[in-house]
Design a protein that fits this description.
The chain is 28% helix and 32% strand. It is of the alpha+beta class and 297 residues long. It folds into 2 domains: 121 residues, no CATH class; 161 residues, Rossmann fold. The strands form 2 sheets. Strands 1-2-3-7-6-5-4 form a 7-stranded mixed beta sheet. The protein has a 5-stranded mixed β-barrel with strand order 8-9-13-12-11, surrounded by 5 helices. α5 crosses α6.
């Protein structure tokens, strides 16, 4: 089971003036090494996720300014995946990287050690290695905590995921994330939501919190607050819609589908229609109570 006890560093800014830190990324701990670069600009978000435990992945970052003629060349390209060697090669708009899943190493070259490039690189590190390890899924979802359990809101862009999380927080729930969350499929049969050190829409991160998931709600704004059940195939479909699946490759697609199927069997996905009011949270709490009773039975 991929559970960790997090030993957070004391609030000491000294760590950010060197080019090395261990960073909690859900079920992974990444050792970030930036050649000749201070990591100070990255401290506001990631400082709470800096840990003093052994790393699972080493990420070497080199900053290299591009020549003018290179800016004229399209940088993004389809990922190159060698399943047998366990290597993924990526070229993005502002960075390139080679992900070696066997040696647990990433060699990345960025144009500038900025918030956006660093955030983008970390998202790929989490997705590539957790899919390779089959430990869980990165989801485009907002999440709140109630009575020690996580509730996730799923939906396409513009469906109201951030709105639902903010309204639930106003009604007394604790905000975990409002854009991206990692869900671990642990060996104990439970699913756990992990906060991530990513740029969220409304700063919906608090630290490396791990909370068991009780339910996921596929949301749509409407004239009433109502929860309804979905059959298993529809639950899987809506879970797959929420997966990020950045690595557009058949191998990773199959793994992602398999994990989404496992998740949809562990955690019920319900349809939630809600109004733009915190009153909808009462309907969710009532449904959670029903699910709790059903799980005991």
């Amino acid at each position: 089971m991929h559970r960790r006890s997090f030993l957070l560093l004391e609030a000491n800014p000294a760590w950010c003036f060197v080019g090395v830190m261990n960073l909690s990324l859900a079920t992974l701990v990444a050792r970030i090494e930036a050649a000749g670069q201070a990591l100070e600009p990255l401290s506001p978000v990631v400082s709470g996720f800096v840990v003093d435990v052994p790393a699972d992945v080493r990420v070497d970052i080199t900053v290299r300014r591009r020549r003018l003629d290179e800016w004229r060349v399209e940088r993004w390209k389809k990922p190159e995946v060698d399943v047998n060697a366990g290597v993924v090669e990526l070229r993005r708009a502002d960075w390139t990287g080679v992900f070696d899943c066997r040696s647990r190493h990433v060699a990345a070259v960025v144009d500038e050690l900025s918030w956006m490039s660093f955030d983008s690189l970390l998202r790929w590190v989490v997705e590539v290695f957790t899919l390779h390890d089959r430990t869980g899924l990165v989801l485009h979802a907002s999440a709140v905590e109630s009575d020690g359990q996580a509730v996730l809101f799923l939906g396409r862009s513009g469906a109201g995921k951030s709105t639902a999380a903010a309204l639930a927080a106003q009604a007394g729930a604790g905000l975990l994330a409002d854009d991206v969350i990692f869900v671990e499929l642990a060996d104990d049969g439970q699913a756990y939501a992990h906060c991530l050190p990513f740029i969220q829409r409304n700063q919906g991160y608090q630290g490396p919190r791990v909370v068991p998931v009780i339910a996921m709600y596929s949301i749509a704004q409407g004239p009433r607050d109502a929860v309804s059940a979905l059959d298993l195939s529809e639950q899987l479909r809506r879970t797959m819609i929420a997966t990020t699946l950045s690595v557009r490759d058949p191998y990773f697609a199959r793994v992602s589908f398999s994990l989404a199927e496992d998740l949809s069997r562990r955690v019920p996905v319900r349809r939630l229609e809600f109004r733009d009011s915190q009153d909808f949270w009462a309907a969710v709490c009532n449904d959670i109570g029903v699910l709790a009773v059903e799980s005991v039975d």
